[in-house]
Amino acid sequence: MFLKLKNTTIGHQTPLIKGVNTTLELGDTCLLVGNNGVGKTTLIKSILNQISALEGELFLGGKNLKTLSNKEIAEQIAVVFSKSQIPANYTVTDLISLGKYIHYPYYFELNDADKKHVEVIIENLNLMQYRNFSLHQLSDGNLQKAFIGRALAQNSPMIILDEPTTHLDEENKIIILKLLRKLAKNQNKLILFSSHDWRLSKEFASKMWFIHNEKLEAGITEDILLKNDELLNPQLFHLDEEFSPPYIDAPSLEKEMLYSFLQKNFRKNLSSYKFEWKGTFWVISKPNFQQNCDSFADLSHIIENLR
């Protein structure tokens, strides 16, 4: 294993995650999920030895983390935090090239192979048109991609990313996640990234770490999802006391959308209604009534006329 946590308790002065025993291998892509405040960033900082574990041990590349210098850890792990300080007067190319200097003195000039690698990263991130832009000229999304590029240029065995897709649209999220998975599979790198957007991210992660109730549950992504109903079935928030929900027979996404639509638009008792999703249309029924509809607009019209 490349990363190992043995009887590890993570936190500041009080524990956030207790008794962790898990490993990750080179070639793994691991998604770290959990609600805000459960300790995701604290766990990442503990793996980087920026925060000491409260109990237990962490091993990196077979060596106890406590025995490694900051430089040795930096050579093994490239990291991208969700909020990073923006260097003054740097272009996109400058920032991504900076990742190479973990291996060289600051005054060293990059060789042709290094410069070519930086060019490839810029192209893979769809940043070619911004390569000479000042970082302060970039959108939040392109700035985040540039910081990810710096981590890729570092060419370390492991890359850790804290909420890497926060400022990205769907297209750029997929670009980043595909690139990370390709790196893990083709270049035998270990990728650990945290995200709230698990419904997209799970498609790219072979492993999952799920933090809840002060525990870290680790395993194959699909095993973790199937064991934890709260991940697959998000909570339907009841915001209006005058709204009485109907029975809804539908997959989780369609159910979530219908519940949201009904609650926002109907302050009435719908408990006698039944809604069934048939793949392309809804069947609405109640005592002595049944009708099909294929849009929320039609559905709204039907409910209004049944008052």
From TrEMBL:
* Acetylation listed as a keyword: no
Keywords associated with the record: ATP-binding, Nucleotide-binding, Transport
Mind telling me which InterPro entries this protein's record contains? AAA+_ATPase, ABC_transporter-like_ATP-bd, Metal_Ion_Import_ABC, P-loop_NTPase
Q: Which residues form the ABC transporter domain?
A: 3-238
Q: Which residues form a coiled coil?
A: none
Q: What superkingdom does the record give?
A: Bacteria
Name the source organism: Kaistella chaponensis
Q: Which Gene Ontology terms cover its molecular function?
A: ATP binding; ATP hydrolysis activity
What is the protein's given name?
Iron complex transport system ATP-binding protein
